[in-house]
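Researcher: Re-running this chain for the archive, since the previous output was lost when a drive failed. Same request as before.
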Amino acid sequence: MKILILNAGSSSQKSCLYDLAAGLPDFPVEPVWEGSIDWTAKPGAVEVKIKANHQVVKDVLPVMERQAGTRYLMNSLYQGETAVLQDLGEIDGVGHRVVHGGEHYRASIVIDAEVKAAIAQLATFAPVHNPINLEGIETMEAILGTDTPQVAVFDTAFHSHLPPEVYVYPGPYEWLEEGIRRYGFHGTSHQYCAQRAAQLLGRDLQELRLITCHLGNGASLAAIRYGYSVDTTMGFTPLDGLMMGSRSGSIDPGILIHLMRKKGYTADELDRLLNRQSGLLGISGVGSDMRQILTEIANNNPRAKLAFDMYVHHLQALMGSMVVSLDGLDAVVFTAGVGENAALVREAACEAFDFLGLELDLEKNNQHPVDVDIASPESKVRVLVIHTQEDWAIAQECWRLLQSSS
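Model: Regenerated C-alpha cells:
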C-alpha cells in the first residue's frame, strides 16, 4: 500500500510517500519520497526541496499559489530524477493533518462530503489552519480524482478523552453549549511519542503515566495516563498554556480588557500581539528561535536571559500540573525542535523534579540523543528524547482505516 501524506500549512507544505507493501511495521520506516515547499523563505519566490532516490533536489521558483505548488510536488513523484512511481494512480490513499476536529471527531476518519463540510464549519475555531487543510484535501481530489480515498487525522482527536473538569472553562455554562471548551492540540505528536516511549521502555502503554513535552515554535504538554490524554496545556485555541516562540501562552485575561479600554486595541490587533509578537520574541527582542536566545545569552544579553528563565519557569510549572493529573510519573518525553535539540532546556526543566527521584545523565543529555533514555540508571523517572514523526503517525492511521475498509 502506497500512502501519501500531505501536511498543508499557511506558510509551508510538507509531503511524503510511504511504501507499505510489506504491511505496517511496529517501528517507523523512512518515506521513499519527501517534498516541501516554503512560500515565505524569500521575497517574490518560493523554495522547493525534494528528497528521493538518495538525492536532494532544491529549487527556487517564482511565487505560485498553494494548489500550483502541490501539483509541482506531485509531478516530481513520477517525473525526473526524484520519480518513485510510474504514475499517480499507484497512490492508494492520502492522509491529511487537520488541526481542529471539534467535539464530533474523536478519531481519524475517511473523508467524504460530510467530513469536508465539518472541517469548513470548524474553521470558526481554527481560522488559520482548517481552511488550508481543507484546500489541501480538495487539491488532492482534483489531482487524483475522487476514487482515491483520503483520511483526516485530527490534532484534537487524541485529547477527546479529557474529563469534563479539565475541558470545561469556568465561565458561563453557555460557553460549553456553544463549543467553547478546552480541545488541546499537537495530538498526533503526543500520541506518537507516547507509543514510541512504550516501545523504547519495553513496557505496555496501558501501564504508563507520561508527560509528553512538544516544544517547538508552538508548544504544549500532555498528561497521558494508561494511553489516554487526561490533561493538556493548549485549550480552546493553540494560544493557551506554555510561553512559546512568538505566542504568549496563558496570561491574565484582564490584560486584554485593559488594552481594549486604555489603548483601543481591536480583536485583530490583540490576535497579532498575542500570536506573533509575544513569547520568546516579545521578551527577548531578538527572535522566536531558542537557538537565537541561547546565542544571545552567551553574548550577555539580559533580555534573552530573562526570556529563557521565563520559558523554563512556565515549563516547570505546567509540568508540575501534569504530574498532579497523573497521580504519579513513570517518564517524561521531550520532542519537537526545542525538545529534541536544546539540551539546556531539558536540563533546566528537569531540575525542578529531583524530589521525584528524577535524575538526568548529563553526558547523554548533551550528546544530541534521538529516541534515547537520558535519565541516569538510578533515576526513578525515565527521561526520553524522541524524534516526533507526525507523518508516520498519520500514515499508520491511514493504513489501519484503509485496510479495514478494503
